[in-house]
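Protein entry
_____________
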Amino acid sequence: MINLKPGGRRESQTQLLSYPAWGYQLESGNWRLNLSGVAWLSPVVFTRRQKMMIRMLGNVMKVAPEEMERDVFLNRINPFMAEADKRRRVVATVGGQGFSLRKKTRGNGHFRNWLIVPSELVDAACDGSSEGSQVLPIKLTIDGDEATDSVNARLLPHRGLSIVSDIDDTVKDSVVGDRRELLNNTFIRDFRCVDGMAETYQAWEKLGAEFHYVSSSPWQLFEPLVELQENFGLPIGTMHLRNFRLRDQLFKKLIIRRQGKRLAITKLLKCFPNRDFVLVGDSGEKDPEIYLKVCKRFPGRIKGLFIRDLEHRPMDDELFDAIQSAMGPNLCSRFTDGEDLFNKASSVFAEY
């Protein structure tokens, strides 16, 4: 079982994890990059309060104590319990030139900065030009520390097709509507992909689509979500998750989702005013309502809208009618799995 005695003092070392970076070209020719990540202290040693919360979490999930000793649980719970390394300066190195990011790590260890990089540096660091997105290698370092990480920033062209996709119950089986199942699927079980979604997204990627995963899942689940992408072959894309703090009452707000998705989607639409967008979500959260508001705010920008209709929480017919009125009957549909989505979206993707 997890040792419930208070953790002792230990020497700590800063760790740095970068999140997916992305950027777009300005009228000047320079590139504006969105860089983010988190810094924390390792090793993670649970405090008395944290151990009490872990025991309570186990009671809610109704799992055997040995399940909470497995690497799967410990690897997923650790990021929620790690001590943040706050107020640290992060340096980004592009093409051999270092740039000190303006904002330091926040109280939760996270950082997010916009960085302007000269076009000549980007051209030299990227291997030639491409009609689609380019990949820019970037090294991130904690100033004055040995903690480093690398990230490949996706440089998206001004025109093209972008898929905005939810994660939970859209591409990943989470069962958000059942608290115990959600927690078990989050902390105990291997992540599972919804049938056929990886194959459909792969087909869209071959058509030149770029992907933006916008979810209410917390950033602490970033690494297992990347494993989900790798294990099932989901396309690489930008990722827009939610900040979560331990004080959010025993993971209560892991279940009660916020509507930060709309802000993330709005930012993407504003950064890429000439790209076409397709929205994919599910009926279990607030995706239909959020997507409807986005369609009304950006008329003509959304070329397709698709909602996975969950059996335990089906989509309201009146809401679906409202979306059809805003979008047009041939541009939106409900689906059950990836194969169904591929078939129902075929007319939207015919022009690509």
